[in-house]
Write a structure and sequence with these properties.
alpha/beta; 13 strands
């Protein structure tokens, strides 16, 4: 019987009381376990201790999660953030080089929300820090006065672009997604492909066409109640299949070298 693929799940660094923690939302690990059918492995934001090569050698895929924090704008030559903006320098130092290294090594990657934005920044793109203030886009933020299931409910449609990863999963041209973000792609990074676009023109999903393995980022949150949403489930199943393929290849290589 084949083993479960080991799927890294990125974490945020957080000070809680007197102690430092590495944390990740429960929904991400649950989606990896239930929808991707993998073993979630939490990855601490310890770039000074764990170089990308050491992390990648142990994994069959990586999920780059969402977060309350934003990528620090100096990473994409953006203006300083507004006062009070949450940042996570330790996460930036870990995830940005890790994304590039994972794609180059052919390790399956799925980026969600902040993880989607990290993908764009990692490959040289830039971000709108406040999409709702640009003037050409709708307000993509959730209503935080509502219950969580309302906040994560369908918010707007996205147009799936033909010939890409999402279209290849059998998704229709138009799907409804949730919308829980204030930042968004300003300049698409060289070498990335727009996979889905909101009605206001904001890019909502990206892929790496020249990548050696599955490499997809989505601005929405497909991990939310993934098992009951066939559009979201298709994304995690494809990611899990790619991770299983890598696990099988890694095990075969190890056996041949034994």
């Amino acid at each position: 019987m084949s083993r479960l693929p080991l799927i890294g799940v990125t974490t945020c660094s957080r000070q809680i009381g007197l102690h430092a923690y590495h944390i990740s939302g429960d929904k991400y690990s649950r989606a990896v376990a239930t929808a991707a059918k993998g073993l979630p492995v939490l990855l601490p934001s310890l770039a000074d201790l764990l170089p990308p090569s050491d992390i990648l050698d142990a994994l069959d895929g990586i999920l780059f999660t969402g977060s309350p924090s934003n990528v620090e704008p100096f990473h994409y030559q953006g203006p300083p953030s507004a006062p009070g903006t949450a940042h996570d320098p330790a996460r930036d130092a870990t995830t940005l080089p890790l994304i590039r290294a994972a794609v180059e090594a052919g390790i399956p990657v799925l980026g969600i929300c902040r993880g989607f934005q990290e993908m764009n920044v990692a490959f040289g793109g830039s971000l709108h820090q406040k999409v709702h203030e640009v003037g050409t886009f709708i307000d993509h933020r959730e209503d935080d006065t509502q219950a969580v299931d309302v906040q994560y409910g369908p918010a707007h449609a996205v147009h799936i672009q033909s010939g890409g990863v999402l279209a290849g999963l059998g998704l229709p041209q138009l799907i409804e997604v949730n919308s829980i973000h204030s930042q968004g792609i300003e300049r698409l990074a060289p070498g990335l492909r727009a996979e889905a676009v909101a009605p206001d023109g904001l890019i909502e999903a990206i892929s790496v066409p020249e990548g050696k393995a599955f490499a997809l980022g989505v601005q929405w949150h497909p991990e939310w109640e993934v098992s009951s949403n066939p559009r979201y489930l298709a994304i995690f199943q494809a990611f899990g299949d790619a991770c299983r393929a890598r696990a099988t290849q890694r095990d075969a290589d190890a056996s041949n070298n034994a």
